[in-house]
Description:
By secondary structure, this protein is an alpha+beta fold. The protein is built from two helices and eight strands; from the N terminus they run αββαββββββ. The chain is 19% helix and 39% strand.
Amino acid sequence: MEYIAPENIAYHADCEPLVRALGFGLVELVVFKRQSTWHVKIVITAPSGVGISDCSRVHRAVLPRLEAVLSSQDMHVEVASPGMDRVLKNAAEFSLFAGRKVKVWDTDLSDWIPGTVVSADDASVTLETEQGIRAFPYQKIAKAKLTGTV
């Protein structure tokens, strides 16, 4: 699994402080232009969960900033929760899901390992598993996903 530092994701530094100020974590930010329209996909998380009103609040806060940064008002912005069974796309996401149950595909075992995220850094994630606390280097994780339980 690849670790992409948040500061290396386009426009992350412009949006993350606004999202954090509202009490959410910025899980995913995708910005691309199709013809003349900018398309923005934002995924947010919070320990207490994310509802429709939360997504609306983040949308209202981030839209003016993106319009200014992208010098355009021709924009489609979608804000969503990560969902119960989110497939983690970037190893940097683990740090946002501390305390949440996940499962990782360990390439050494060729099997899913369930556990609760204890901590994560730029090299590995530490999970509390049935066998105890274990660190999993990202290069040994083929894929990972939330399991839908807290």
